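To: structure desk
From: M.T.
Subject: fold request, one chain
Message: Could you run this one when you get a chance? Sequence is below, nothing fancy, just the single chain.
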Amino acid sequence: MDIYSAFMLMAVLARVLLPTLNRNTDNHIVINKRRYCILMGFILFLITALRSISVGFDSEQYSRHYYLLHQMGFKDIINIYKDELGFYFIIKTLTYISSNHQLMFTFIGAIYAFFISRFIYKYSKDSMVSFIMLITMSYFAFSMTGLRQTIALSILLLSIDYIIGRKLSRFIILVFLGSLFHKSAIFFLPAYFLKTKKISFKKIILYIISTPLVFLLRPLMINIVQKFIYEGYLVDYNQLAGGWTTLFIYSLILAVATILKPQMEKTDDNFPLFFSMMYMGMLIQMFVPLQANIFRVSMYYNIASIILIPGILKTQKDKISKLVSYVIFFILMGVQYYMFTFYAAGVNPYRFFWQ
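Reply: Done. Structure tokens follow.
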């Protein structure tokens, strides 16, 4: 059994071993949900912190950067790296503590584990489902290879609090801070305007009409983006299958959420935000088959999927429909993981740093 399958099994067992997560007083529900998220977040942290540089396509490259930064001064870093200096300054600071790159994996793993667990704790209706989706949808796998963007994503997860709280200045500050670690974070700025009280019928119609229009205009739009923003990247047609598969899954999630919209709006005030985030992410995902690197932007929005799916499952009230819904979820996530994302981001096979 691979370590990620073991994590998913532990997510299920921990849920069973914390029975008061679903009953007893509201206080016990909150307490046990917090304990559950802390436990699963800690396990994610251990997997990240104890991994070898062979885990993750870019891990070895980042380890080389770490040793190079150990030899540089801050002025050298500014002259050589120029962009996304927040990342290199922090990593340089870590080299004063230790010259071993494992400290970098540990530090970034702690940041990601904390903020993703906090996000799940605050907004997910079923923490187990959300943690499982981190594995099956490759969000966790990417966190072990795209280290700069992992920190950026962690900061943007915190910024969602200020979208909901309607605190624009704090939101902008966090997005700008995230862009110091990965410049793609700046594309999360439109997310602030996705917050509404409800998803109206007119908005649904607008979404439906806009989807094929954006799809048809993709070649023109991708040329503009590459020319002015991602000029240094080339189109990667080897990513076609993964791009279309993921796009289908996101579209399916949106379709089901649309059908169950009345029930979900009654139980979750934040549903309109996460639904609209998911829609934006789906639109951006359409460009991935043409330019694989754009998935970096879509991920900022599609992380909402780990909130929407638990909400969908929680709309089922009677035991039979609930059982059927969870069985379908586990089957689909199993197919997604073992057929499509098992080797995503080069995180399998997993090895500890001492192996």
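Reply (cont.): The chain has 18 helices and no strands. Let me know if you need anything else for the meeting.
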